[in-house]
Write a structure and sequence with these properties.
Shape: globular
Strand content: 25-35%
Number of strands: 13
Structural class: alpha+beta
Helix content: 10-25%
Radius of gyration: 49 Å
Order of helices and strands: HHEEEEEEEEHEEEEE
Largest sheet: 13 strands, mixed
Number of helices: 3
Amino acid sequence: MLRMVVVIGILAMLSVPCSTVAGWRDVLDTADHVDKLIVNHPPPAPASEPAEPAEPRDDPPPKPRESRESRPAPSRGGDDAHFIQPDDYFINNEGLGNHSYIYVHLAKMVTPPSSNRKDEGEFMNVSDGQNQWTSYIWQSRIASQSELKLGMHFIAFHDNNQNGIYHAPKKKDSARGGRWWYAKITDMSDTYKGFVTVSGNYKVGLHNIRIPIRYGVQDR
């Protein structure tokens, strides 16, 4: 429609005499410029359609993250509070005798003791895997405070000394790879402080005492 109007306008101007050739050239240039505007002018963008509303989702809400503090502590299986297992033994090549204390080794039984072998059994040391024959063999259990008495023999963990008091092991690897010792109680006057004094004038925490049970009889 606009092109038709421009053409009519040009025809009208042709009916009017131009005094110079330059005048006609201006007219032609104007027509050409209008023609380019009409041809090259981009069409208007179509109106955008309204977006469709999002469909409601039936996904369940995310689960709250579980707190580490709320998780139950992992089970120790057959270990007791000292990380000692039911088939563990403590062994040495001699008993306490006249010593203030002796070190004992955590071991597993390989060959049971027998009268045919001088009551000796074969045991594998848990910490280094070495085998040893001996007749000084103890199983043990954790003692309650009501069981403690003067002169009682006991086994305790050696490698957790805090402020001069030997405490129970805190980790399984230290309990099963560390040192244990055998002594007897010599003073119970400090039980209200949480420890007893033992042979050699050492202090042992009340929760670090095991009652030794020698093969077939209890040490007294």
